[in-house]
Write a structure and sequence with these properties.
The complex is a heterotetramer, with two copies of chain A, one copy of chain B and one copy of chain C. Chain A is about 35% helix and about 35% strand. By secondary structure, chain A is an alpha+beta fold. Chain A has a single domain, classed as Phosphoribosylformylglycinamidine synthase subunit PurS (Mth169, Chain: A), CATH 3.30.1280.10. A three-stranded antiparallel beta sheet of chain A has the order 2-1-3. The longest helix of chain A is centred in the last third of the chain and has 16 residues. Helices cover about 35% and strands about 25% of the residues of chain B. Chain B has 26 helices and 28 strands. In chain B, helix 10 packs across helix 13. The longest helix of chain B has 21 residues. Chain B is globular. The termini of chain B are far apart. Chain C has a single domain, classed as Class I glutamine amidotransferase (GATase) domain (Rossmann fold, 3-Layer(aba) Sandwich). In chain C, strand 3, helix 2 and strand 4 form a beta-alpha-beta unit. Chain C starts with a strand and ends with a helix. By secondary structure, chain C is of the alpha/beta class. Classes of the chains: A alpha+beta, B alpha+beta, C alpha/beta. Strand 2 of chain A pairs antiparallel with strand 2 of chain D, so a sheet runs across the interface. The structure holds adenosine-5'-diphosphate and magnesium ion. The site of adenosine-5'-diphosphate has 19 residues of chain B, from strand 4, strand 5 and helix 17.
Chain lengths: ~80, ~775, ~230, ~80
């Protein structure tokens, strides 16, 4: 069972990294780029054979406890199968 | 008085809203009187932040007035973004310390990072080039479930910001105590160098001059941060906090370079950073100092988000922003420099002569407040004070049984997290960038930095022993001054000025207010005795969680001057040997000591008292003795007493910590061999004492100098071997410990206590 | 001999490099602004330490697209001397002027401390005058050198590894490796030898006030090599 | 048009951050966690109205030139719509 957790800067929270990437891309000649946000993606393999529902719950729990810092970050959990 | 129509969409003003904004009935009555009408929502927000504890110092002001702030060297005292002390050669040292306690508890990384960002801006707005950062950190018990996370986050945040800025973090302190379980303290200090005739101030002068906004865009960050810093915590409510400010040190680095470049020219009249209460406090303060008015067009403020109201724009605490008053017609010169550094600079208003602070949104006035009353009529309280009921109990001398095995005591003390090596911390800080760090963290009581383009150097140290202050705020605070002064003297410097950061509990509790008043008086009296002024400072109140206040923690940032940078010494015992001389008369006390806490779990007793005549004689001997090359290394006795100080010198060895495996020594302390008396002389804490390392050829010189300057000096032993040996009056070995064992305890103590992986020990 | 020191937005050791070449070693020195293309007739270019573009995304990634970096690449292709220190090394790898990549330290923390380096190849223009070991402080978060096996084999085979982390006495050990770099690599050159990238900061140990001053030998070496070259 | 670019450590390349996250989760009592890999996710808004095919190509170009370092990282581009 594989889980993917996306951790992204919360809406409204400054994302200096996103701004720098946007600047970099623009310098490179990529035009018309709007907002850029940079976050983390964490891919986990679960040894246990839980069902998708349980895996999602587990992922959320991990995100809340460790993977994301909810003061400044949002997260989404996805089962990759 | 003009009337201002309520802005569509803004909430209606009512009692509940006024109370939510933290204004008391009396304060609100003043608002009504000043305006001659009901405030708009925007104005209510402005009064709320400007009159918050954090911005108005309403509780502390009457006490801070007692500080000595004058002196022949003072170029800028308290009241500006930072203070400046002259060091000759046409240069001044600009410095200040500030707290970021509450934000760092909620979000340790960003809270600490933005604390560093804020204090840097305070210094470079004065046109000073920052050359050093320090920090004083207080965490809860190492075993508390939150502590490790907070330690890691705070240290990484300080490192993340300071390192990226290219300003070395050269010193500080870290202590742990249960009273900080729910309120950690993060005090950051920045030190810069400024040409004495090029000091910039935040005075909005010259009606008609344009006001420019520069730096990052405004978002909804930390709205009400200032009011938050003026409130207590309730456990479990951390979720309801405003958007945390995220620091962008990269933008701040650009801002630093752009501002310093700008201030080389004459296109700028005034400059001020946007700190707590953002655009509001920066603009109001600039107008207040200038006796002028300002008219700002809030719709021109660069924003990160759509739909922000004037209220939000004015109260946002987004980081890395500055407000500049330019000379009329020079807007383009200003813009040009900021464009070079890839930053935005936008004209957002003008200086006026009507004394009004007026905010306009799309041509409509949304706030108009007379500047004078807004600043001058800010509330000021003389809050009730009462001696704490448990004061006598706090100070009662504890009856402590002897531990007996002094080796064991020494190891326990060396391994206790407050005393142990802080290498895990400062290794994460770039402490060398800019090539000025002559004495690095861990190598001495204070860091020493060369002052660029001169022969001089400065020594900097941040100190507080809150155990002593809690036990007796007046005596303890004097001790803080004495220790800070000794710390800079131990590297060869003369103490010349301080900044302070007064961290206290809830001032609405009379006992806390009593502690505050006694501590401030103690600091002031100590500084007067020394002849050293306060040039800047900061107050952080309401450090209270679930009705428990922190220990009173008045942190001091001391700056000392070395006329010749070649004089600087460290604290490590040199490999080529020498004599050990104890300077000063020990008056050891086991009350309120690390020994009592660590070995007996008892926090009780009166702290050691400062005897200023002796203390000053000690400082003079250290300073003169180092200058004349009689003293090659020195370290004062602080936490853990004379034995711990000696062990630290032995472990450290060399001038910088990466050099050499340490050096053994053997000294005789002439201690009474009775077990508890012996522990008292080894581990009792005292003011006014320091160990000095003297080449054998200069021993007589130092003893003579000490006598001449009225300082006790006793030759106790010499450097050598690979053991730390301390004998008592019967020549019995009270301590006989291998250097390796002492070193392992000291080097491993911090990480072991907090549960962190220890960095590899290098050869 | 004239040095050019590049200032990217976020560079913060540019003044340190300038100070050492100019005031300690007495050479001509000038800053090169990242938006410019004029190399001002310099003989050696230093890409200094710091956090170019905030080190956001990846250290050195964005700086590689600055106009000045393109000129530095051209200069290097013509055999000009280029020294990348710390962030400068990261820029050089990102720009493809040096092979491999600098990844986050294995302990995931920023480290600032003295590092002892053994000079693995004393026959480069950068090391001809160097003693067997030099001390140079490190100060980085992303200094873990990595290259695929083939590249690494080539670097070792061609003796392009110039500095390795070592004990004070010069022995290479795992404990002396502060950041997890493959083969204890602290600095490498390109195949031709005119481009050097190193994570440690030799400019921080070029004056006796600040250490044993052994870092200065790297600068003295390149000055020597340049003068030899012009004489030849 | 929104693009999402995933940048992940290459297979076979050591991922100390992933290892640290795994350690952290295990300490927290999450059992049976296999491999953990930590990467980046970059979300971009494109102002231009290109079709999905062109957007993907653009994203790959950005990833190759800036967003990923192919010595140690792989990337995937996805159109979020
Ligand atoms: N937070 C910190 N940041 C940087 N350096 C620190 C920090 N904490 C301690 N240090 C350094 O570690 C050394 C020892 O600190 P400390 O134990 O507080 O010394 P002392 O008791 O002599 O004042 C000093 O050089 C100090 O500057
Ligand atoms: Mg001390």
């Amino acid at each position: 069972m594989k889980l993917r957790v996306h951790v992204t800067p919360r809406r409204g929270v400054l994302d200096p990294q996103g701004a720098a990437v946007k600047g970099g891309l623009t310098n490179l000649g990529f035009d018309g780029i709007g907002e850029v946000r940079v976050g983390k993606v964490i891919d986990l393999t679960l040894a246990s054979t839980v069902d998708a529902e349980a895996a999602l719950a587990l992922g959320r729990d991990m995100a809340r406890k460790l993977l994301a810092n909810e003061t400044v970050e949002d997260f989404e959990v996805e089962v990759l199968g | 008085m003009s009337t201002i129509a309520p802005r569509p969409g803004d909430p209606e003003i009512n009692d509940a809203l006024v109370r939510e904004h933290g204004l008391s009935d009396d304060e609100y009555a003043s608002v009504l009187r000043i305006l001659g009408r009901e405030p708009t929502y925007t104005e209510l927000g402005v009064f709320s932040v400007m009159w918050s504890e954090h911005c108005s110092y309403k509780t502390s002001r009457i006490h801070l007035k007692t500080f000595p702030t004058d002196g022949p060297r003072v170029l800028q005292g308290p009241g500006e973004n930072a203070g400046v002390i002259g060091i000759g050669d046409g240069l001044g040292i600009c410095f200040k310390m500030e707290s970021h306690n509450h934000p760092s508890f909620i979000e340790p990384y960003q809270g600490a990072a933005t604390g560093v960002g804020g204090i840097l801006r305070d210094v470079f707005t004065m046109n000073a080039r920052p050359i050093a950062l320090l920090n004083s950190l207080r965490f809860g018990r190492p075993e508390h479930p939150k502590t490790r996370h907070l330690v890691e986050g705070v240290v990484a945040g300080i490192a993340g910001y300071g390192n990226c800025m290219g300003v070395p973090t050269v010193g500080g302190e870290v202590a742990f105590h249960g009273c900080y379980d729910g309120n950690n303290l993060v005090n950051a200090m920045c030190v810069g160098v400024v040409e004495e005739d090029r000091i910039f101030r935040g005075i909005a002068a010259g009606p008609g001059n344009p006001v420019l906004y520069v730096g990052s865009r405004t978002g909804r960050d930390g709205i009400h941060g200032a009011t938050m810093a003026s409130d207590s915590f309730v456990e479990g409510e951390e979720g309801n906090r405003p958007t945390v400010q995220v620091g962008d040190p990269y933008t701040e680095k650009l801002l630093l370079e752009a501002c310093l470049e700008l201030m080389k020219e004459d296109s700028v009249v005034a400059i001020q950073d946007m700190g707590a209460a953002g655009l509001t406090s920066s603009s109001v303060e600039m107008a207040g100092r200038g006796g002028t008015g300002l008219r700002l067009h809030v719709d021109r403020i660069p924003r990160r988000e759509d739909g922000m109201t004037p209220y939000e724009c004015l109260l946002s605490e987004s980081q890395e922003r500055m407000l500049i008053v330019a000379a009329k017609g020079r807007e383009d010169d200003v813009r040009q420099i900021f464009t070079k550094w890839d930053l935005e600079a936008v004209v957002v208003g003008t200086v006026t002569d009507d004394g009004m602070w007026t905010i306009v949104e799309d041509g409509v006035e949304v706030a108009s407040i007379p500047v004078g009353p807004l600043t001058d009529e800010a509330p000021e309280y003389d809050r009730p004070r009462a001696e704490p009921a448990d004061l006598a109990a706090r100070q009662a001398q504890p009856e402590l049984p002897a531990v007996g095995d002094c080796n064991e005591v020494l190891l326990q003390l060396l391994a206790s997290p407050t005393i142990a090596d802080k290498r895990w911390v400062w290794r994460q800080y770039d402490h060398m960038v800019r090539l000025n760090t002559l004495v690095r963290p861990g190598a001495a009581d204070a860091a020493v930095l060369r002052v660029p383009d001169t022969e001089k150097a400065i020594a900097v140290s941040a100190d507080c022993n809150q155990i002593h202050v809690k036990a007796d705020p007046y005596e303890g605070a004097q001790g803080v001054i004495a220790e800070a002064a000794r710390n800079v003297a131990c590297v060869g410097a003369e103490p010349i000025a301080v900044t302070d950061c007064l961290n206290f509990g809830n001032p609405e509790r009379p006992e806390v207010m009593w502690e505050f008043e006694r501590a401030v008086t103690g600091l002031g009296d100590g500084l007067r005795a020394l002849g050293v002024p306060v040039v800047s400072g900061n107050v952080s109140l309401y450090n209270e969680t679930d009705a428990t206040s922190i220990h009173p923690t008045p942190t001091i940032g001391m700056v000392g001057l070395l006329e010749s940078r070649d004089d600087a010494v460290g604290m490590g015992l040199p490999a080529d040997g020498g004599e050990l001389v104890l300077l000063g008369s020990p008056r050891p006390s086991l009350g309120a000591s690390a020994y009592a806490i660590v070995c007996h779990g008892v926090e009780q007793g009166a702290p050691p008292k400062v005897h200023w005549n002796e203390e000053k004689a000690l400082l003079a001997v250290l300073h003169e003795g180092i200058r004349r090359r009689f003293i090659r290394a020195a370290h004062d006795a602080a936490d853990g007493g004379l034995a711990v100080a000696l062990a630290e010198m032995a472990i450290t060895g060399g001038r910088n910590p990466d050099v050499g495996p340490g050096q053994g020594c053997e000294v005789n302390l002439a201690a009474n061999p009775d077990p508890i008396a012996r522990e008292l002389s080894l581990f009792g804490e005292t003011q006014g004492c320091a160990w000095a390392v003297v080449p054998t050829s200069h021993l007589a010189d130092l003893l003579a100098l000490s006598q001449e300057l009225g300082c006790m000096a006793r030759h106790c032993g010499r450097i050598g071997g690979d053991r730390i040996v301390v004998t008592d009056a019967h020549q019995t070995r009270a301590i006989d410990l291998s250097l390796a064992e002492a070193r392992a305890a000291w080097e491993g103590g911090f990480c072991a206590s907090v549960g962190l992986p220890q960095p590899p020990v290098r050869d | 001999m004239k040095f050019g020191i590049v200032t990217y937005p976020g560079s913060n050791c540019d003044h340190d490099a300038y100070h050492v070449v100019k005031h300690v070693l007495g050479c001509d020195a000038t800053f090169l602004w990242h938006k410019d293309r004029d190399l001002q007739d310099v003989d050696c270019i230093i890409l200094p330490g710091g956090f170019s573009y905030g080190d956001y995304l990846r250290c050195g990634a964005i700086a590689r697209f600055s106009p000045i970096t393109e000129e530095v690449a051209r200069f290097a292709q013509h055999g000009g001397y280029v020294l990348g220190i710390c962030n400068g090394f990261q820029v050089l790898t990102e720009a493809g002027l040096l092979p491999g990549v600098l990844r986050t330290n294995s302990q995931l923390k920023f480290i600032c401390e003295d590092a002892s380096l053994v000079v693995a190849n004393g026959h480069t223009p950068w090391t001809v005058l160097c003693p067997e070991t030099v001390v140079a402080p490190i100060a980085h978060h992303g200094g873990c050198y990595y290259a695929d096996e083939e590249t690494l084999g080539r670097l070792e085979g061609e003796r392009q590894v110039v500095f390795r982390y070592a004990q004070r006495d010069g022995t290479e050990t795992d404990e002396a490796n502060p950041n997890g770099s493959l083969n204890n690599i602290a600095g490498i050159t390109n195949a031709r030898g005119n481009v050097l990238g190193m994570m440690p900061h030799p400019e921080r140990n070029a004056e006796s006030e600040l250490g044993d001053a052994s870092g200065a030998w790297i600068f003295r070496s390149i000055i020597h090599s340049f003068l030899e070259g012009t004489r030849a």
